[in-house]
Design goal:
Length: about 950
């Protein structure tokens, strides 16, 4: 299916601007690559991306598309892009509703409803509603990034739907946009809408009986063009219900009126281990008698993946698998306002559990924070399935079938027999209380035979759902699986759906090729273009191909470290997913000799906005390490092109930084001039005002002295070149802090680690520096003294990037790791006076790569008698040189304001572990933060 000619798209963009469209209108190839995928195996490159700021923009867009000159150009609305079946992928124009149209418009707490724009993220909405004691259901596994508009589009469901219903059960009205204006179910009907709605009602009523006869009566009911609910038995016509689950094929939704539930005050969560998945599955029906809000299951395969990822370490000890043991888990949640009644139901559940086969450990959680953490383990299942190694990986295409719960065991048995007949592995998790399991077979979509297998399995499972009175699309929408819709609903009902489509979309422009078509083709599960699935094993861009669109990197939360550039811009191309899409498209075209769809200039643009925090390397379920892949791309690109002067100067400065440290006494007097010139040459601002003075010789150790005998309780302190050149305070604080704790710190003469060179893809320079530093670290380790790195970015580079580059280095600990180990070994630290407290702000790379960092510092401060709070924060916005570069000032400041500036108002002592973070706080707020070791030195001094 070819895209539109670029000249026609250019004229469309010009016409939109002439009409006063205030949002973004873009043809950037990296952005189009980012919008070409979702959480499915498909890829369709759009021609134009528009991001409206308000409903007026949407009306302007529809008015322009209504012109004869632009006939046939499709329009597809997109929210969070978390669809598993290509729901928001198409040619033509993509309407990005998340970027700007993401506001909570109005709340009526008394009547329990709210009006929202379609781009608002589910968790964002519920966070704003929480002070009112209200929430919007259901709870999806992608709640940190899926939008309410997307939930409406696919009629999303999730945990607790047996009690709270699907999305469609919690919508009480919609506003849609047409070329003529807005039409809302909760506002007077405009004159122009009357004839259209009359046509819709006539065809809806004509096909209602056939529609009802074809749709099973299930909790996870069939939706999308819902003729039954649109034409209620008691009369009237609720046209807006046709849009719920219609996936944008009837037109764009611009406002959603949602029904809200009261937050129940009491929660209990029961987590149960079973000896096998079949035993866990069999427990669901009897356990429903105790009326839990939700019953979820996780099979042994997902358990093994979670264990390998370290996630099961968050389970209580008794629930963890023993050795190589395999466990299937059931999660049961109970909610209510009456604790006595709730505990009565819980007691009945526990008694019933004791009678079931295969029962293992049982754990009951009552603390809401613990319940949230335990549910996060189950929610991680979808991401973990994407982390499977090998060319074949679990794929979402038959993973949300729903059957009556009483038939679930038999359905699963036959489903697994289909997979076994094809020799396929799989993982399972899901909502057993409503008869919905997520089963993802492992395929290599690059292979024609596996694409044929996808079709064969889809057909077989479609027939199985019909056999057991179920629905093929129970939770995640239809997308290209809508190709089965006409057969499933029957010819009479389908003709009515076509009539509805023709009335709302007479030109066939809305998400064309999906679900229902009047005279065009419907996209098929095998005829829609697939995204490239693999590249050569060991290729530095391999992880870009493994990005499956799960989109955890698109979390709205300011305090979640991944991904800062996306949080600051709300622009998909400036996210790990967007960058992976662009890199994959570029690499695939090069490998396969096909025309490039991503311009290298656009790719350079999106890589430049990456702060290099490496949150994606640890927080992403499949560890899509964008900084690592950026280095590989830069190495290739600048191997063919001239490197910018500023980059060459930075690489040179790092490589020769040891000499700079040696001549500090000569540089200090002229540093203001050097600083000014460096700012001009590097296009930077606010470079450090002072050069660090050398520490006393008694507190330093030369590289040639590392083999000499060392005093008792010596700790060797290593630093990066920025700390050595510019952070005199942390050098003094580290020495003073360790001395106050009873150690003999020695600051090792600095050798550059090569971080700047690596970030810029200067691999030869990086390897020279890394090889020399690795030799020194191994020599230091032979002394037997602990090796401690002062800056988190430096230490974590040694653990992550040196290992990837093949350099063997000994353990270099962060201060809190070393001190916590000492405490665990029985070491007693000196104590400060009672009643002291402080706040710690962690470096974002440290917080993601070492999630327990706050807890470790908490142990250290508790050991000296100080209470430490460790609030969650996102990136401070500095990230080495990034925050100093003039082109990044707006992003840098916005990130600081999003989650760091609030803590600057704290009256108690605030400490920060990262040099960049301390620089940013002083630069943007004027507050000089100390390193934790400096505060320890003060408190114990």
């Amino acid at each position: 299916m070819p895209g539109e000619p670029s000249s026609r798209i250019s004229r469309l963009a010009d016409a939109l601007r002439a009409m006063g469209f205030t949002g973004e209108i873009e043809t950037d190839s990296a952005l189009r690559a980012a919008m070409s995928t979702d959480n499915s195996v498909y890829q369709i490159f759009p021609d134009l991306i528009v991001a409206p700021r308000n409903t007026d923009d949407v009306i302007r867009l529809l008015g322009v598309l209504d012109r004869p000159a632009f006939a046939g150009i499709g329009l597809t609305a997109r929210g969070g892009g978390t669809g598993t079946n290509g729901q928001s992928l198409n040619r033509g124009v993509i309407l990005d509703l998340r970027r700007h149209m993401n506001r909570l418009i109005a709340v009526n707490a008394a009547e329990q409803w709210a009006d929202v724009e379609p781009g608002i993220v589910l968790d964002d909405l519920n966070e704003q509603l929480r002070p009112l004691g209200l929430f919007f259901a259901p709870e999806t596994s992608t709640s940190t990034r899926c939008t309410v508009g997307g939930m409406v589009s696919t009629d999303a469901s999730g945990k607790g739907s047996r009690i709270y219903g699907k999305t469609s059960d919690n919508i009480i009205g919609l506003e849609i946009a047409c070329a003529q204006g807005l039409l809302a179910s909760f506002a007077p009907e405009p004159d122009w809408a009357g004839p259209m709605l009359a046509r819709v009602e006539a065809v809806a009523r004509s096909g209602r009986a056939a529609f009802v006869a074809a749709t099973p009566k299930l909790n996870r009911r069939f939706t999308g063009y819902d003729l039954e609910r649109a034409c209620p038995d008691n009369g009237g016509f609720e046209w807006w219900r046709l849009f719920l689950g219609a996936e944008g094929t009837l037109g764009p939704v611009t406002r959603v009126r949602v029904h809200l539930h009261r937050i129940e005050t009491e929660k209990r969560l029961v987590v149960v281990g079973f000896g096998s998945f079949s035993q866990a599955l069999a427990s669901a029906l009897p356990l429903m008698a105790d009326e839990p809000t939700a019953i979820e299951v996780m099979d042994e395969r997902v358990q093994q993946l979670a264990q390998a990822a370290g996630i099961l370490s968050r389970l209580p000890e008794e629930l963890r698998p023993k050795g190589e043991g395999r466990v299937a888990y059931i999660f049961l949640e109970f909610n209510g306002d009456d604790a006595r009644l709730l505990d009565g139901r819980l007691a009945g559940c526990l008694a019933r559990l004791a009678t079931l086969d295969g029962i293992g450990a049982v754990y009951v959680a009552k603390d809401k924070a613990e319940i949230r953490d335990l549910w996060a383990i189950r929610s991680a299942g979808v991401g973990l399935l994407g982390k499977v190694d090998g060319l074949a990986r679990p794929v979402a295409f038959v993973e949300d079938c729903v059957v009556p719960p009483e038939h679930l065991a038999a359905f699963v048995e036959e489903f697994l027999a289909v997979l076994s007949a094809h020799g396929l592995g799989f993982g399972m998790y899901g909502h057993v209380d409503v008869g919905c399991l997520h089963i993802r077979p492992a395929l290599n979509i690059d292979l024609q035979k596996d694409r044929e297998t996808l079709v064969s399995i889809s057909t077989a499972v479609f027939e199985l759902t019909r056999k057991y009175g179920g629905i093929f699309w129970g939770e995640h929408g239809k997308g290209v699986r809508g190709a089965f819709l006409a057969e499933w609903i029957g010819p009479e009902a389908y003709r009515a759906l076509q009539g509805v489509k023709a009335a709302f979309d007479p030109k066939g422009q809305y998400n064309p090729g999906k679900l229902v078509s009047v005279d065009g083709e419907i996209m098929g599960i095998a005829t829609t273009a697939f995204r490239p699935f693999n590249t050569t094993e060991g290729d530095p861009l391999e992880r870009a191909f493994r990005c499956n669109g799960n989109a955890q990197c698109l979390s709205y939360q300011a305090t979640a470290p991944m991904c800062p550039s996306f949080k600051a811009s709300a622009d998909l191309r400036h996210s790990p997913k967007g960058r992976a899409d662009a890199l994959r498209a570029w690499k695939a075209a090069r490998d396969r000799g096909t025309p490039q769809k991503v311009d290298e200039a656009d790719l350079l643009g999106v890589l430049d906005t990456c702060l290099g925090c490496k949150a994606c390397a640890s927080s992403c379920p499949v560890q899509v390490d964008i900084p690592h892949m950026r280095s590989a791309f830069y190495a290739d690109y600048y191997g063919r092109k001239g490197r910018p002067f500023g980059d060459r100067l930075t690489i040179w400065a790092e490589r020769w930084s040891r000499l700079q440290v040696r001549i500090v006494p000569l540089v200090r007097p002229v540093w203001p001039l050097v600083r000014y010139l460096a700012g001009l040459l590097l296009q930077t601002t606010d470079l450090p005002r002072h050069i660090a003075r050398p520490m006393p010789k008694t507190d330093r150790i030369g590289l040639d002295e590392l083999s000499d005998p060392l005093p008792d309780k010596t700790v060797l302190l290593f630093q990066d070149w920025f700390t050595a050149l510019f952070d005199e305070d942390v050098q003094r604080d580290a020495i003073a802090g360790f001395k106050a704790l009873g150690y003999r710190p020695l600051l090792v003469d600095m050798l550059p680690a090569g971080k700047a060179a690596l970030n810029l893809g200067a691999m030869a320079d990086f390897k020279v520096m890394a090889r020399r530093l690795a030799q020194i670290l191994n020599r230091a380790a032979a002394s037997g003294a602990p090796l401690i790195g002062l800056d988190p970015a430096f230490v974590l580079m040694l653990r992550q990037d040196y290992a990837k580059a093949g350099f063997d280095v000994p353990d270099v600990l962060l201060p809190q790791e070393f001190l916590a180990r000492q405490i665990a070994a029985g070491c007693r630290l000196p104590t400060a006076r009672a009643g002291l407290s402080a706040t710690l702000l962690s470096h974002c790379t440290e917080a993601t790569s070492l999630p327990q960092t706050g807890a470790l510092w908490g142990e250290v401060f508790a050991a000296i008698g100080v209470t430490l709070s460790t609030p969650a924060t996102g990136c401070c916005g500095m990230a080495g040189l990034f925050g100093h570069q003039k082109r990044h000032q707006a992003v840098s400041r916005k990130l600081f304001d999003m989650s760091w500036s609030l803590h600057m108002k704290n009256e108690e002592p605030v400490v920060a572990t990262g040099f960049s973070c301390r620089c940013q706080a002083e630069r943007l707020d004027g507050r000089a933060l100390r390193h934790p070791l400096g505060l320890i030195a003060d408190l114990l001094g």
